[in-house]
Amino acid sequence: MLKISGVPSNKDIDQVFPSQERLEKGPVVIVECFETIPCNPCYTACHAGGIQAFKDITDLPTIDFEKCNGCTMCISSCPGLAIMVIDYSYHKDYVKMMIPYEFYPLPKEGEWIKGLDRRGAEVVKVKVLSVKNTKYQDKTQVITIAVPKAHYKKIRNIEAGDSNAKS
Amino acid sequence: MIHTDILIIGGGPSGLCAAIAAAKSGAEVMLVERSQYFGGQLVKQTHMFFGSEKQYAATRGFDIGKKLVEEVKNSDNIKIFHSTTALGIYEDGVVTLEQKFESEEIYLKVQAKSLIVTTGALEKSLPFPNNDLPGIYGAGAVQTLMNEYLVKPGKRVLMVGAGNIGLIISYQLLQAGVEVAGIIDASPRIGGYLVHASKIRRSGVPIFTGYTIVKAEGTDHLEKATIAKVDQHWKPIPGTEKEMNVDVMCISVGLTPSSAFFWQGGCEMEYVRELGGYVPKRNRYLRTTVGNIYVAGDSAGIEEASSAMVEGSIAGLAASHDLGFVYEGYNREIEELLQELEGLRGGEKGIHIRRGYNKVGF
Amino acid sequence: MNQRINKHPIIDIPLRQKIKFFYNGKEFFGFEGETIASALHAAGITKLSESIKHHRPRGFYCAIGNCSSCFMRVDGKPNVKTCVEPLRENMVVENQEGRGSII
């Protein structure tokens, strides 16, 4: 249970995913936000209308998947690092995922690194397509990875080289 | 004797906002802070803040601190004194201060027409065998060491407490290159924001809810810690002990409001569990039972930085208004701030805070 | 034992002036802007004193000047809160015995 383990269940994740039909159309946002805390900068960051206006600041974000164009501007605006963008249409065998990352060392473009699940366990190797950190991202790097289709729903994090997190 | 309209004790987010608000209406403000820098707890917050655009959501804490300090420095009627500790409030309303300059100490006396006390909070500690070993620190202490002085606390950490502070500091330990062996909390559920917990779980850090610390061991420094599951009476269950080889333990079991000045000043106080301890009773404009003493931030009740900033603005406006510094738009502005505060306290996370505040309003 | 953070994903590590100080007669180095306790910690010294009655090892606890766990004698003055006292060039830091006398 999320409140005990901190890990969203498969059911929690399914609730924030769009339809398979929408996934196949192109990049779309996934917001793993399950708690009514006072927070709405995702709405402020969205220019396409994908993340709708909040009636109350403690509401969960409401997503219009049709309006969302997967631009990734909202990824680095979420203080909880709860947002990622998935492009199911990228390749027949791979899904492109854009995730937030705030650790050193940073992965390098072209590298194959560990893809981790929501418990931090290694699932499969993923390929780093790009690493973005402009002034807008303000150190919340957006890492683009190619993930084998069979595993993409499990992947939520990466571990670059001999990372700091585990010694 | 220094004379001023409003003396603000404590230069953290609530004190800075109070100074900006009070000075805006024309009052002469004196802001004192015991550290060398202004910004309080904001200075070491490397993570993005929540709330809305008005409360600088998605801006990192230390950047918010810099913005507020810049605004204070640009104001014509705020005089700032750092390295200046307020020592006490006397019956005649005089506040004494000790200002440090290099290795010298200067004793000052201030007679202010009104006082806003924004001294924040203190970290609680936890009793268990050998809790006094070097290596066992408050979680905030470890955050100060890492993010302000850029020193790692050790190699492997056990975090005691899964509230926001415990979760956030565990994440920041990973960012500093320190291993976090685990986070424990005696409560059956995670107390902090679930997004913080999820972030830390997907980095491989386990969270043990329903666990407490049994003892620490070490000769001149912490070497290992024993944790155990607790029963419904919070007592360790024999046979469930786990030994962890850690050289740092962070105690993150809550904050308690810093209340010394209110006691000294003669304010009516109330013990409120939901707010973290003793707090002064206050009206909706944050004036205490002593006509010219106001409160804002964590010393009004343990909450978030976003509420601290809004409260600071409310107290600053109210204090200057009560001294006669009125301006057009004041009523609208203060009502908007009160509504903002109410909004931040909505939702399920705000239930116990709202209950706490209901006990101390008048 | 190098406990200094030289690279950080969020914090821009500033260039700081090196400061020389003495601890129990030995020469140590710290950085401008840090406290005595932090400089000692970076050098691997975490035991700052012994408790008065039972001589238990003590270090700092709150690191913000509230708890008084970090007292040491600095430049001859006892009961200095080393967790908030800024490091200065040629400072003489020593373990203090017992409560420390100001006379």
Give the overall shape of chain C, derived from the CA principal axes: globular
Mean pLDDT of chain B: 94
The level of helicity of chain C is under 10%
Number of helices of chain B: 9
Quick one: how many beta strands of chain C? 7
Oligomer: heterotrimer
Description of the structure:
The complex is a heterotrimer of chains A (167), B (362) and C (103). Helix content of chain A is 13%, strand content 26%. Chain A is of the alpha+beta class and 167 residues long. The longest helix of chain A is centred in the first third of the chain and has 7 residues, at 10-16. Chain A is globular, with a radius of gyration of 15 Å. The model of chain A is unreliable at 163-167 (pLDDT under 50). With 362 residues, chain B is of the alpha/beta class. Chain B folds into two domains: 2-122 and 255-360, FAD/NAD(P)-binding domain, CATH 3.50.50.60; 125-251, FAD/NAD(P)-binding domain (3-Layer(bba) Sandwich). In chain B, 29% of the residues lie in helices and 27% in strands. Chain B contains nine helices and 19 strands. In chain B, the strands form five sheets. In chain B, strands 1, 2, 3, 4, 5, 6 and 19 form a seven-stranded mixed beta sheet that branches. In chain B, β17 and β18 (277-280) form a beta hairpin. The longest helix of chain B is centred in the last third of the chain and has 18 residues, at 305-322. Chain B is globular. In chain C, the strands form two sheets. A five-stranded mixed beta sheet of chain C has the order 2-1-7-5-6, covered by helices on one side. In chain C, strands 3-4 form a two-stranded antiparallel ribbon. Chains A and B meet through α1 and α4 of A and α5 of B.
